[in-house]
Amino acid sequence: MAETAKSMFVNLPVKDLKKAVAFFSEVGFEFNPNFTDDNATCMVIGENIYAMLLVEAYFKTFTKKEISDSSKTTEVLIALMVESRDKVDKLVNSALDAGGQIANDTQDLGFMYQRSFLDLDGHQWEIGFMDESAIPQG
Questions:
Q1: Cα–Cα dist 76/62, whole Å
Q2: Any idea what DSSP says for residue 98?
Q3: pLDDT score recorded for residue 17
Q4: At 94, is the secondary structure helix, strand, or coil?
Q5: Contact 11, 54 (CB under 8 A)
Q6: Torsion on CA atoms 57, 59, 63, 66, rounded to nearest 10
Q7: pTM to 2 decimal places
Q8: What is the pLDDT of residues 19-38, one digit of tens each?
Q9: DSSP label at 119?
Q10: What does the alpha-carbon distance between residue 55 and residue 13 come to, in Å, rounded to a whole number?
Q11: Span 37-53, mean pLDDT?
Q12: Separation between Cα atoms, residue 72 and residue 62, nearest integer Å
């Protein structure tokens, strides 16, 4: 059996680090000051789940490939599951109030509820709640 990872870091390029930090702070996320400077910050998403927001020029030092223009193309969907429908709404509404945009229509399947938003750099965040006890059996 493959070893399970202890934590996850998603690295995202951003055009303006200060604006990205202000946006995600307003959404409700916190940052680890030990991993923050003029080029990058570590956004704490959950227990052992982090997003490194990297200024594009610094992000480029980690790859030989071109950086995707996330306002025009999608390379990744960042999906976060939260503890309630209310938390989904609170998080997405905070993102919209902070200047984010709706990415897709709300999906309500009864057992699963999902909304999504685009951050200031066009990265797509999918926020969902799933009630596993209500999943249709069959």
A1: 17
A2: T
A3: 98
A4: helix
A5: yes
A6: -60
A7: 0.89
A8: 999 999 999 999 999 999 99
A9: -
A10: 6
A11: 97
A12: 22
For residue 127, the cross-strand partners are 80, 115
Q: Calculate mean pLDDT across residues 7-29.
A: 97
Which residues have a Cβ under 8 Å from the Cβ of 63 and sit 6 or more positions away?
Answer: none
From residue 51, give the alpha-carbon distance in Å to each of 2, 63, 131, 133, 134: 24, 17, 26, 30, 31
Q: Would you give the end-to-end CA distance of the chain in angstroms? A: 29
Mind giving me the DSSP string for 12-34? EEES-HHHHHHHHHHHT-EEEGG
Checking if the pLDDT of 3 tops 80, the result is: no
Quote the mean pLDDT of the chain: 94
| Token reading at 45 | 């998403």
Q: What is the Cα–Cα distance from 8 to 76, expressed in whole angstroms?
A: 15
Residue type for position 131: D
Backbone angles phi, psi at 37, to 5 degrees: -150, -160
